[in-house]
Structure to design on (1165 residues):
């Protein structure tokens, strides 16, 4: 078990190298001159362009650029700066707590609402409630995230004044609307997925046996049904958390949160390799750990799954 | 100043959140702690109203690229810097003339090549360091030094010795000298009458010695000589707070006691926050909101015309566009007013000129080919054998899709062009195409005046060989007229600039499209009459009056 | 995790679906059974009819409208729905009904191509990873970490920037490359949950080859969650296509698609709600059709629920 975890952690090394190299190469390959774009429509003098390119090693061949950057990271913990001279570590320090809070709020929303809705839909299969869950899913999938966010802002922020419209100044409360917006689609999926699994599990022999033995229905659902239905849900939540970290651009933008999703988006557009690679490194580390956790959860949910 | 921000989008001008003491106060007053308050649609009065002189204003802003005067080329940063710094001159936007800043007086020789500026003697930086003529000499030399890579360097190219310094052949600008403590002399490469106007620009603000030692930490809390001084550091993506500098020696100090720029990523969100009373004022109402602005804000909203010019450039290096009849036909086939009414909710002024309408030198009926005339356009296009297929170029994610599509529909309808495709690109890539002259059809670009001179509206974009001359226009007569106007007395210059403009409107290297009007909305805390915006699209935040209550 | 209890203490293994019969005959009857139960399922009938209509719309839009979706006089821009323009007109003055009808082709194409592809890729890789375990699993799963870590915007910008044309296929390819990992993860999780069942062990003991085991015993019991997610995913992809366009790397104007319509509508949520409502209804119907169909298929094919 411990050996397994250590082995998994070691796999981090090749993944980080591959990810940073690929990402660095991609930013390098992006068409257009990032320095040139800094000053917009009005061009810079050639001398200024040249000095800036030199300063950010942009004149070096790709591998040299990459090596210089990685050397800085591993020898001095220097993640470089943006083209405006702002240290990347500074950006990460500012953005990480916000992104993590947002993702956790969204995740809890998915788990709580998703599981409750899913269980109810399965237990009362084909009832009105079951169909409501399906219809809600269809709607949240079809409505663009931005529209969901805007409607929440309008209703609960501007009109009812229950939650702030944007920003993080009111602490955790500020994350409620963005969390719901971010988690809406996945909550629907979790509910639907759990429903299907649970319906199947509730029809299986061992559940029938348990019911026949006179076990209380709620107990049967939780002890036998739910437990055997959780694996796909846990997998999905893990994968979804991974997509959430990088995919929060829209939500961060409309709710004015300074998280990493929006940052990486803007840095890609500005072709700021330092920022992009810095954040990606962090994400990769997180994914490797996340997936280890998911795999360990499998074993906890279903003891027949084991690792050695 | 660049025109439209490269990274900006329709919804996202550039960059994010709020914290900060005063914002907290405002929020608490208006909304109640967890928001159950029904306090009349959440207006936040009296946030700091008891403070004597002027109160606190919270204003929308986008995240600046940087806060270094010599390096700032976009609105979000320059707007803040204008409050933190005062240059040699300022501009009076009533008369469009240069007025005293640090300099009290200036004069030039006959042919506008040598200029003497007399400086006021009681100017200091916010840290107490005195400002004299040498401060400017040192600043200008540092800015132009290629090792410092400051983006505004190219504005200095009229000064004698510029080439030598940027090429590394000299350390200092030969053309700028302090003849005594309070006298500054400029020697120019060529006659340039707009100099006093140009010196009001961000790139010419004086900077203290500490800026040169460590520019990166300096710009986290710039020490300037302007109406306001930084309170704390620039909180990236969150806010920039400044307090009024009580020792500012100029004549019209700032009205509000404190200004807090709240940084937003999304203008739509900022709009909602003004509606909720969390934010006092925002100066770039999203285009799609213009139609609801009045319903949402009643009297607390207004529109300002600006110099922000949008044009459809034509790549004159491509054969199809070398015939000016083709260019005229394309222009006449566009119903600008219809597009403005339906796509922009009226928030643009149709362009029939190159010199922005608010400048004294602007004229209304100078353009023969800017009015919608579909029949004449069709006839002309057919005679000139204009291209039957077009590709239109624009930069993506910046809200240009709708109107470009409308223009394309009109060209299809009125000129019978069968096939129009679009090429929308990231800004960096877009500029690359231009640099390599690979653009094959009409392209969108824009221009905002950094200082209100007809010279700046034309010279950088249309004179031969200038780097912003994306259409690759070259006309000797035009070049000569600009040079002549630059050498003329200001009174005579305007009519010569107009002659130059006539050439542009006849030759039409670019099709003038619109001048932007910008919507401003504010909360009840701000006195409506005090809201002003100048043609650079800068809200005059230092003039805002907070309602006492 | 070797120290954990050995297999099946909590959940008794489900019974194997009677494995030893004449193969062809059994499979035929399986499909016949499935078909019979499908026909009796009203949700299947409804969703099938709906899908036929939507596909016809995508293939032959001119059957549904005489209006030209590209005739767009600005003078009739932003009209509310009326007898003449059933769905009103859009910003450009195009007949919105015609636009929505003609939008089906691109949107359905992207949705179906991407969902089908990631379904196939995800099922194959997830199955292989879980079945063989060990280094195969490690490599494939770290590959998913890698893909999660690379921001799709970056990939899209690099890939689509070198393409001069951006067809439905190009846009689909980008989406496929960056979305398959979730499917692979889901499949792997489901397979891990069934692979320790008695009937698999039994089949192994009887000398069945890996391919046979995967096809006959694992696949039918583990496809459920992936099928369910793929159905919903079709709807998500239709929206994602619009995001790409917004970023300048999706389908290019003047292409017509539901995604583009939703994208444009979200700026006018309050002012012109009809712009959002109509494409939204169609996307929602598509998602509804696919999810109901998926659910019905799953019920019909599931060996356990046949007893109903």
């Amino acid at each position: 078990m411990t050996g397994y975890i250590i082995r998994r952690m070691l796999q981090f090394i090749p993944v980080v190298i591959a990810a940073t190299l690929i990402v660095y190469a991609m930013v390098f390959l992006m068409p257009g001159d990032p320095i040139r774009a800094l000053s917009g429509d009005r061009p810079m003098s050639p001398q200024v362009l040249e000095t800036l390119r030199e300063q950010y090693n942009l004149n070096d061949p790709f591998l040299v650029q990459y090596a210089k950057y990685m050397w800085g990271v591993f020898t001095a913990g220097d993640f470089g700066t943006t083209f405006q001279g702002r240290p990347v570590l500074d950006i990460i320090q500012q953005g990480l707590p916000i992104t993590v809070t947002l993702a956790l709020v969204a995740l809890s929303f998915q788990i709580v609402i998703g599981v409750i809705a899913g269980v109810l839909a399965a237990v009362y299969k084909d009832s009105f409630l079951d169909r409501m869950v399906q219809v809600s899913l269809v709607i949240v999938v079809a409505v663009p995230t931005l529209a969901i966010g805007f409607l929440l802002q309008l209703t609960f922020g501007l009109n009812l004044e229950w939650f702030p419209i944007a920003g993080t100044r009111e602490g955790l409360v500020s994350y409620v609307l963005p969390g719901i917006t971010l988690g809406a689609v996945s909550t629907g999926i979790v509910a639907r997925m759990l429903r299907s699994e649970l319906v199947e599990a509730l029809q299986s022999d061992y559940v029938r046996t348990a019911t026949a033995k006179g076990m209380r229905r709620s107990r049967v659902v939780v002890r036998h049904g739910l437990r055997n239905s959780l694996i796909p849900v846990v997998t999905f939540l893990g994968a979804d958390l991974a997509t959430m970290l990088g995919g929060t651009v829209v939500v961060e933008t409309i709710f004015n949160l300074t998280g990493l999703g929006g940052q990486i988006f803007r840095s890609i557009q500005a072709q700021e390799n330092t920022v992009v690679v810095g954040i990606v490194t962090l994400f990769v580390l997180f994914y490797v750990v996340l997936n280890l956790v998911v795999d360990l959860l499998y074993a906890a949910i279903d003891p027949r799954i084991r690792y050695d | 100043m660049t025109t439209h921000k490269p990274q900006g989008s329709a919804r996202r001008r550039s960059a994010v959140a709020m914290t900060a003491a005063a914002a907290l106060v405002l929020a608490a007053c208006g909304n109640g702690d967890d928001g159950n308050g029904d306090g009349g649609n959440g207006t936040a009065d009296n946030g700091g109203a008891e403070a004597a002189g002027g109160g606190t204003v919270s204003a929308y802003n986008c995240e600046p690229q940087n806060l270094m005067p010599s390096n700032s080329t976009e609105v979000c940063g320059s707007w803040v810097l204008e409050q933190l710094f005062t240059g040699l001159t300022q501009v009076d936007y009533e008369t469009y003339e240069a007025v005293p800043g640090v300099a009290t007086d200036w004069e030039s020789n006959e042919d506008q090549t040598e200029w003497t500026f007399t400086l006021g003697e009681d100017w200091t930086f916010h840290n107490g360091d005195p400002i004299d003529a040498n401060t400017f000499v040192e600043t200008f030399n540092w800015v132009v030094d290629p090792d410092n890579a400051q983006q505004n360097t190219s504005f200095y190219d009229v000064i004698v010795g510029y080439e030598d310094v940027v090429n590394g052949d000299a350390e200092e600008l030969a053309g700028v000298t302090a003849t005594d403590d309070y006298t500054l002399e400029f020697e120019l490469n060529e006659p340039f009458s707009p100099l006093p106007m140009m010196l009001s620009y961000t790139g010419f603000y004086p900077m203290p010695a500490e800026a040169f030692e460590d520019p990166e930490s300096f710009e986290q809390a710039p020490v300037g000589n302007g109406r306001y001084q930084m309170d704390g550091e620039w909180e990236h993506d969150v806010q920039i707070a400044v307090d009024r500098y009580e020792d500012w020696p100029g004549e019209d100090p700032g009205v509000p006691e404190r200004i807090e720029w709240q940084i937003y990523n999304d203008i739509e969100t900022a709009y909602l926050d003004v509606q909720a009373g969390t934010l006092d004022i925002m100066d770039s109402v999203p285009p799609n909101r213009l139609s609801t602005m009045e319903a949402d804000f009643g009297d607390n909203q207004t529109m300002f015309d600006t110099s922000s010019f949008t044009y459809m450039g034509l790549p004159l290096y491509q054969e199809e566009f070398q015939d000016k009849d083709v260019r005229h036909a394309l222009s006449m086939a566009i119903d600008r007013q219809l597009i403005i009414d339906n796509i922009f909710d009226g928030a643009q002024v149709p362009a029939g000129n190159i010199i922005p309408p608010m400048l004294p030198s602007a004229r209304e009926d100078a353009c023969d080919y800017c009015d919608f005339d579909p029949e004449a356009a069709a006839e002309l296009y057919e005679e000139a054998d204009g291209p039957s297929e077009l590709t239109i170029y624009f930069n993506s994610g910046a809200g240009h899709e709708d109107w470009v599509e409308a223009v394309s529909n009109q060209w299809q309808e009125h000129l019978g062009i069968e096939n129009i495709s679009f090429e929308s690109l990231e800004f960096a890539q877009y500029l690359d195409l231009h640099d390599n002259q690979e653009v094959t059809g009409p392209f969108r670009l824009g221009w905002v005046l950094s200082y209100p001179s007809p010279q700046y509206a034309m010279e950088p974009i249309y004179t031969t060989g200038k780097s912003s001359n994306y259409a690759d226009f070259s006309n000797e007569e035009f070049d000569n007229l600009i040079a002549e106007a630059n050498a003329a007395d200001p009174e005579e210059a305007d009519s010569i600039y107009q002659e130059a403009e006539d050439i542009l409107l006849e030759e039409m290297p670019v099709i003038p499209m619109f001048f932007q009007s910008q919507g401003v909305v504010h909360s009840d805390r701000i006195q409506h009459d005090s809201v002003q915006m100048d043609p650079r699209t800068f809200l005059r935040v230092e003039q805002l009056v907070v309602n006492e209550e | 995790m070797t120290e954990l209890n050995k297999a099946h203490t909590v959940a008794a293994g489900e019974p194997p679906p009677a494995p030893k019969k004449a193969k062809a005959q059994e499979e035929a009857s399986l499909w016949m059974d499935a078909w019979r139960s499908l026909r009796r399922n009203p949700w299947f009938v409804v969703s099938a009819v709906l899908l036929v209509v939507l596909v016809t719309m995508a293939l032959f839009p001119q059957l549904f409208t005489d209006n030209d979706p590209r005739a767009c006089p600005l003078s009739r821009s932003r009209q509310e729905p009326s007898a003449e323009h059933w769905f009103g007109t859009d910003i450009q003055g195009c007949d919105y009904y015609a636009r929505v009808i003609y939008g089906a082709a691109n949107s359905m194409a992207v949705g179906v191509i991407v969902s089908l592809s990631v379904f196939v890729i995800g099922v194959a890789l997830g199955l292989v990873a879980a079945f063989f375990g060990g280094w195969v699993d490690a490599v494939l799963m770290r590959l998913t970490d890698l893909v999660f870590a690379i921001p799709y915007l970056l990939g899209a910008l690099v890939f689509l920037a070198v393409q001069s044309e951006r067809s439905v296929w190009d846009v689909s390819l980008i989406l496929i490359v960056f979305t398959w990992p979730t499917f692979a993860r889901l499949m792997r999780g489901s397979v891990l949950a069934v692979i320790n069942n008695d009937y698999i062990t039994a089949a192994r003991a009887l000398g069945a080859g890996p391919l046979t085991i995967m096809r006959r015993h694992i696949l039918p019991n583990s496809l459920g969650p992936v099928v369910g997610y793929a159905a919903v995913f079709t709807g998500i992809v239709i929206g994602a296509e619009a995001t790409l366009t917004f970023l300048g790397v999706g389908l290019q104007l003047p292409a017509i698609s539901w995604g583009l319509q939703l994208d444009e509508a979200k700026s006018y949520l309050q002012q012109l709600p009809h712009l959002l409502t109509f494409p939204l209804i169609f996307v929602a119907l598509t998602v509804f059709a696919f999810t109901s169909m998926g659910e019905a298929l799953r019920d019909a094919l599931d060996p356990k629920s046949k007893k109903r």
